[in-house]
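Hi F.,

I've been meaning to write this up properly since the lab meeting, where we talked about keeping a consistent format for the predictions we share between groups. The idea is simple: the sequence comes first, exactly as it goes in, then the structure tokens exactly as they come out, then a line or two of notes. No screenshots and no reformatting. I'm using this chain as the first example so we have something concrete to point to.
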Amino acid sequence: MTIIMVDIESDGPIPHDYSMISFGAVVVDQALDKTFYGQLKPISDKWIPEALAVSGFSREQTLDFDDPQLVMQRFADWLKQVCGSKPMFFSDNNGFDWQFINWYFIHFLGHNPFGFSSTNLGSLYKGMQRDMFVNFKHLRKTKHTHHPVDDAKGNAEALLAMRDMGLKL
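Output, unedited:
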């Protein structure tokens, strides 16, 4: 199993009605040097300016991004290249990130290399600490910038810190 930390940015709350604008992924290992970054052209005419603003891109910029099918194929190819076995999807907010990645894979490629499950980093930390009110974000080293590779890397650092606290990975 290869753990892949993923983060996405979008222009709205749900896939199909709105678009995934960009995403990043990193293989969770000590080096954190195997990364993927994709920018995707919008698939919908609908978008929420405040949601898009988080990404730092304008609507005009996103219209010049790559075709989503090509980006998802490149991501699937990257996963095959970097994963010695089945990839395992992790994210800070898997309820949000997972829905976009899963929908885009199924819609554009007909399958999701991650299968049908994902893991939420925050919930894992809460369980480790036996406290529903703790937060893992202090374990990040890389600044949370809303660039999805930075954010995925920071979350991967947090997961590695959890491993150092005794979590079996």
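Notes:
The chain is about 40% helix and 15% strand.
The longest strand covers residues 2-10.

If this format works for you, I'll send the rest the same way.

G.
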